[in-house]
Amino acid sequence: MQRIPVTERPDLARAAAEHGLEYTAGEGITGWDERAYYQFMARQVDEDIEAAAEEIEGLCFQIVDRALGNEEVLRRLGIAEPFWDYMAESWRNNEKNLYGRMDLSYDGNGPAKLLEYNADTPTALYETAVFQWEWLEHAIEAGLAPKDSDQFNDVHESIVKALPQLGVGALSHFACNPDIEDDTETLKYLEECAGEAELKTCFLAMSDIGIDDQGRFTDLDHRVITTLIKLYPWEWIMNEDFGLHVPRSGVQFIEPPWKAILSNKGMLALLWGMFEGHPNLLPAFFEDDPAAASFADAGTYVRKPMLSRQGANIEIVRDGKTLHHTDGLYGDDAHIIQGFQPLPEFGGHYPLVGCWLVASKAVGLCIREDKTLVTGRNARIVPHVIAD
User: Fold this and answer.
1) Spatial contact of 208 and 228, defined as CB atoms under 8 Å apart
2) What is the DSSP letter of 150?
3) CA–CA separation, 65 vs 90, rounded Å?
């Protein structure tokens, strides 16, 4: 694994406009940086990342199966009781999941370590699937990347293929909070994929969903919603008055409700408790677990909220001293304690390797790079190539 500096494309402003990305002269594209790329060997991707992600996914399914039969675990995860049977039923009915992104610490040597799993509302999908691939084609043409370069990136084709296999209705609705730009852009891209798969779609805001006198969800044209592909966290839904109508709505949700277990960082503690010592896992404990106090006493650990976004409220402690701390809205929420596996450093850049899964199959890589050990709002996607 190498970080290779290169020049950015001279027509980057045109490319940004063509793809609807925000471009600022002298700064480039918001959230994107092509002044370098990461180069992997095929073996590293195949064995250390792709195979590991799919193995972890299998472990996650065992966690879901266990959690849905254990009220204590569901309480630990902060999941409200009115949703327990609803989530269990979705699991028993084999409701299919579409996609997710596992975030890994990986330096090219040894096993990748799971830091967290964005299993419900991951973003940066379009930049990974489309813009990154276009960069590779242009980079090869311009001699910026080796002629025989490849990329681990079957994301777009996999989504287009998977969507019709989800058993969606005649009309699929897509909903999010339109005030959150990343969520909106990601969901719009998913809707484009659905159109390519010849599915009928309708985009709307979560706040525009209505409820008829039979408890069914409706859109602004009073059409009944049968399939809702959302980019809106399950924990938000479960904490809103709207959410109380969900179990009886008859709506097929994508992601399905059982994904609420995997998108909760408490899942990391469950994984360690069930598969302690697995080479791709880090020690992790619920903060109120006596084992967490014992682990933290050693002086090196990471404290992170069970439910948070974009690296908020994470504290890294090494040798008893706070190495890094981020602010956010989740400081008073339940936390976990996790082993500290630092991201590799390349000249002041810290890459986080994201492995995308579609229908539980690993299909692509997204490298997000920040200038600190915590990947936050200012992180940028840096493209990658495979070249042995």
Assistant:
1) no
2) B
3) 11
Q: If you search the block for the tokens 């002298």, which residue do you land on?
A: 26
- Comparing CA positions, the residue from 217, 236, 227 lying closest to residue 254 is 227
| 231 Cα distance to chain centroid | 11
Structure tokens at 375: 């990947």
Tell me the β-bridge partners of 224: 218
What is the identity of the amino acid at 292? A
Residue of 164, 165, 167, 171 lying closest to 224 (CA atoms): 171
**Residue in 115, 46, 40, 47 with CA at minimum distance from that of residue 284:** 115
pTM of the model: 0.96
Residues in the chain: 388
Helix, strand, or coil (residue 165): helix
Query: HEC profile for 277-334?
Result: CCCCCCCEEECCCHHHHHHHCCCCEEEEECCCCCCCCCEEEECCEEEEECCCCCCCCC
* Residue 55 CB neighbours (<10 A): 14
pLDDT in tens, 37-60: 999 999 999 999 999 999 999 999
Those residues with Cβ within 8 angstroms of residue 338's Cβ, 6 or more apart along the chain or in another chain:
115, 268, 282, 283, 284, 285, 301, 302, 303, 304
Where do the domains of the chain lie? 2-263+345-386, 283-338
C-beta separation of 85 from 134 below 8 A: no
What secondary structure letter does DSSP report for 223?
P
Report whether 271 contacts 63 (CB < 8 A): yes
- The rounded distance, in Å, linking the Cα atoms of 381 and 387 is 19
pLDDT digits (tens, 9 = 90+) for 322-360: 999 999 989 989 999 999 999 999 999 999 999 999 999
